[in-house]
């Protein structure tokens, strides 16, 4: 094969590689970064809704001015109810912040220790979760445990509503993502287990503890664990 032919093949491969890589570029983010911002906050909210969000509330508290709310999208898409400043939305994984605070409060109360291991609380998980006897609560709080994320298991999504009741099963008997405290990987399983630890230590639900120790003292009157549709 001649050098000229090799160069032609190399150029073709390079062009194909470039074309394929463009498929993985997050063009929505690129567009948002390049284009100038809209003139008003409300216009920015409206534009953000155009990227696929169901509903949005923006609160701005600027010195010397009264607080302002900006809303967009739906409070209830199914029933075509527009979002308003009092709309309630699920906070999803932001709830992990409340779990982390509850863990630290229990540490301060000397009811648990961040150095205790997963196996200390759940000896039945030895052999089911790799390194269970080496993974500490601190590692789970920091997502440095190496425990697989149950939502990364494709089987979980086959019936999310039903499988959510037995979510831990989708993280068992799998190889660790890395050795304890030797990496970082976001894992919902960490906080699923931390909630169970809190329940076991207290003898009652972590929701009740967080309400009494966090929500009520901070007067978070519009933060709920379950919201019933009226």
UniProtKB/TrEMBL annotation:
Residue ranges of every copy of the Beta-lactamase-related domain listed in the record: 50-227
Domain of life of the native organism: Bacteria
GO molecular function, one term: serine-type D-Ala-D-Ala carboxypeptidase activity
UniProt enzyme class: hydrolase
Keywords associated with the record: Carboxypeptidase, Hydrolase, Membrane, Protease, Transmembrane, Transmembrane helix
Spans through the membrane: 12-34
Protein name: D-alanyl-D-alanine carboxypeptidase
Species in which this protein is naturally found: Jejuia pallidilutea
């Amino acid at each position: 094969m001649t050098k000229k032919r090799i160069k032609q093949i190399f150029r073709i491969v390079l062009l194909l590689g470039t074309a394929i890589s463009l498929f993985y570029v997050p063009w929505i983010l690129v567009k948002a970064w390049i284009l100038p911002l809209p003139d008003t906050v409300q216009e920015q909210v409206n534009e953000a809704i155009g990227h696929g969000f169901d509903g949005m509330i923006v609160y701005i508290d600027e010195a010397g001015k009264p607080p302002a709310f900006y809303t967009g999208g739906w409070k209830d898409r199914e029933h075509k109810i527009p979002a308003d400043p009092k709309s309630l939305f699920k906070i999803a994984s932001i709830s992990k912040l409340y779990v982390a605070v509850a863990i630290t409060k229990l540490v301060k109360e000397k009811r648990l220790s961040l150095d205790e291991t997963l196996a200390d609380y759940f000896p039945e998980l030895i052999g089911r979760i790799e390194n269970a006897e080496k993974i500490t609560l601190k590692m789970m709080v920091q997502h440095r445990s190496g425990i697989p994320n149950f939502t990364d298991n494709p089987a979980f999504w086959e019936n999310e509503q039903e499988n959510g009741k037995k979510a831990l099963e989708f993280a068992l008997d799998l190889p660790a993502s890395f050795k304890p405290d030797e990496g970082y990987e976001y894992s919902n399983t960490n906080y699923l287990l931390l909630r169970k630890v809190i329940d076991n230590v207290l003898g009652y639900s972590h929701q009740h503890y967080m309400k009494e120790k966090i929500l009520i003292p901070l007067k978070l009157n519009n933060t709920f664990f379950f919201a019933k549709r009226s």
